[in-house]
Design brief:
It contains 10 helices and 10 strands. By secondary structure, it is of the alpha+beta class.
């Protein structure tokens, strides 16, 4: 009887302990709540739909607003295209420095690659660089085809846990998605996570991730969120734009801790192309807000007259 009583008491204690140990969601810090409020106010006044995802990679501080909503990728789709291409290189089906022969049938627009003469040769590595740094569209579609097409890239994304990010253009079975979202689609959270995935050496292989990350660190179009960072700070990014949508994903190597963020818009009322586009303005505002939030003691601001270099 004594043993039975002891067993019942012990069981009761374990049940009480188990009940107290149930996980609970941590309450956001006051700093996080202030950041979320500021970002929500920006989105609340936006004429269209916008989503923002922010994560401090050192502290884990996260703000997610419409972060799991699908948005058009525009040219940010060139990040997953690069992953699919590097997977082919890793498998030995392509060589990074192999010479490619340009044909007029590849022409999409009059970017750098699209301006090559028929029969001109160019290394694959340079086409990749142009895809990521100047967002060359003809070169990007060429890389997409070399990667095996959208279907193969989407299979890589799915196998690596990216369920929402997809290439739509020139991908059989995704015509309806292309009509709605254009070249590709993703969420702010997933696009930011993909950039971190590459940063952490998990995309394809550590060495492939290293090269992909370096490519993403050579950004010609640095007039949006990047313009709000001191030029001495390393940042890796890709942005995109179509008439009714703007997108930008950035990983900032800030002095007090790296942070990643993604801003995406759709259904914008403002379709004009220029520095004062509402989506582009939102990206600059978010970029500045986040920099001063995570680096509150840094007094740097863009120099007077920087606008003329847009």
């Amino acid at each position: 009887m004594f043993r039975l009583i002891c067993l019942l008491i012990l069981t009761g204690c374990l049940c009480c302990f188990s009940g107290q140990a149930q996980p609970t969601s941590p309450r956001p810090s006051a700093s996080t709540r202030r950041l979320a409020k500021s970002l929500q106010q920006l989105i609340g006044s936006f004429h269209g739909q916008a989503g923002i995802y922010v994560r401090n990679l050192r502290t884990g501080q996260t703000v997610a607003i419409n972060a799991d909503t699908l948005f058009p990728t525009a040219s940010t789709v060139k990040i997953p295209i690069q992953c699919g291409l590097f997977d082919k290189i890793h498998q030995g089906e392509l060589s990074y420095e192999q010479p490619l022969t340009y044909r007029d049938s590849l022409h999409y627009d009059d970017g750098i690659v699209g301006s090559l003469k028929d029969g001109a040769t160019i290394p694959l590595s340079q086409v990749v660089m142009l895809m990521e740094s100047v967002s060359d569209n003809t070169g990007s579609l060429w890389c997409q085809a070399l990667a095996g097409g959208g279907k193969t890239i989407n299979q890589w994304l799915d196998a690596n846990g990216f369920r929402q990010t997809r290439v739509n253009s020139r991908t059989p079975g995704r015509e309806a998605f292309q009509k709605q979202n254009g070249w590709g689609q993703t969420t702010p959270r997933e696009l930011a996570d993909l950039l971190v995935y590459i940063r952490d050496g998990k995309a394809v292989s550590p060495d492939a991730s290293d090269e992909m990350y370096r490519n993403l660190g050579r950004q010609y179009w640095d007039h949006d969120g990047l313009s709000q960072l001191p030029p001495s700070v390393k940042a890796v990014t890709k942005n995109g734009a179509v008439n009714q949508a703007r997108s930008e994903v950035v990983l900032v190597h800030a002095p007090h801790g790296e942070y990643v963020y993604c801003v995406m818009t759709k259904h914008q009322q403002d379709e004009k192309w220029g520095r004062d586009n509402e989506g582009t303005t939102l990206m600059r505002t978010v970029g500045a807000l986040l920099w001063h939030h995570f680096e509150p003691n840094d007094s740097w601001t863009p120099p007077a007259g920087y606008e003329k270099w847009w």
